[in-house]
Amino acid sequence: MSLAIIHSRAQVGVEAPAVSVEIHLTNGLPSLTIVGLPETAVRESKDRVRSAILNSALEFPRKRITLNLAPADLPKDGGRFDLAIALGLLAASAQLPGGCLDRFECLGELALSGHVRPIRGVLPAALAARAAGRALVVPLANAEEASLATGLTIYAIDHLLELVAHFNQQTPLRPYQAQGVLEPAHHYPDLQEVQGQQAAKRALVVAAAGMHNLLLSGPPGTGKTLLASRLPGLLPPLTEQEALEVAAIQSVVNLEPLKGWPQRPFRQPHHSSSAPALVGGGSKPKPGEISLAHQGVLFLDELPEFDRHVLEVLREPLESGYIVIARAHSKLRFPARFQLVAAMNPCPCGYYGDANGLCRCSPDQIQRYRTKLSGPLLDRIDLHITVARETTSLRRPSQSGLSSAEAMEQVCNARQRQLQRQGCSNAQLNLNTLMQHCLLSDEDRIWLEQASERLNLSLRATHRVLKVARTLADLEGQHSIHRAHLTEALQYRFSHTQG
Q1: Which UniProt keywords apply (predicted)?
Q2: In this structure, is residue 343 part of a structural domain?
Q3: pTM
């Protein structure tokens, strides 16, 4: 009778809780029983592990085998436990020294030949293993991803026999060394490539500087999508912690999480997307578009064409920066600190207010079109910009105004002032810190209150006007908010209500 315990990690959302793989061998008819809430892929691991061990010229124990995945109330799925199960069987049958396995955590799916295949969710497991003070054994294809957790000892293997030879001190493995600094896969288009639209460009810089949400409204072909695609290129580079958060989310949804890393994500879901696709969900909850846009930009084109119920679920994450998905057996929390950029036409045909007078929509049609967007959702969008039609020209566009690099420099300076003053962007200020860092003179405070009353702005909208004014002051390097900042901030709110 023998017992072996191997450490591994499950995947629950973007977290990696610890799992102990316990193997117990006793005399009796040969059998293998898996307990501990294993799902189908885990139950099938016994066949993969048996073939992998036999095809590696090792001995599969011909005993009664009980395999427990603890804790028992945590659901386990996928093939990520194959490698740990195989090592446990070899250690329990004295083919490996058992004492040396306590300092390691193992992840990997086994092929029938004994080769180790990549899995999803390696980065969250690597961060958790580093916190636990253990080394991590991963498939070779996942090694570069795991190496993002600096300070972690990683052993990358391609075949089960490599690990057996290491633990038997026949051919010791060397800790994996990262291949080098990863570079972004591509660069975002430059702001100078957009012809005209100086007011909209100014709004993009303001939105980037304070992490404000932005709504672009105008006729078709005025460059709304073109402008929105430039916003990620204006944002400050990701910090190490932010980059790890982005990569961890990508790690649990695909096998190539480092593609484009470290770069702020830009997500553009279609207006036919369902609520689970947008915010996450499913029988096995996965991150949605708002989580995939974490620390980046979520662009919703043709905003009124989205189902109203789908849009309403954005209200909570826009305020909190995360989304909680509840299921019968658990609650999962996904990060969703994104910057919303939306685009819409002013009416169903798109030409209401256009100088060419092409609009043929009735007032009732326009009203029904606009009521697809609720007041509470619009209140959470700080900047409302009308994008007018520019003069048609087929000449090669000349670059004018700020470049993305110049705009990013302004944005980074403004963000640095915000971090030094309050530790977060202006858009993330809560009520207490807002009153502390957005002080107004008595005269300006009364003026803003009166203006908000005339424009029928809610208290939330007024607070957001104050946040935008704080950002405008930061862009100018001003310590205090002045009347000019309040006036410009109100114009960004007023341009939409005018329509």
Answers
A1: ATP-binding, Nucleotide-binding
A2: yes
A3: 0.90
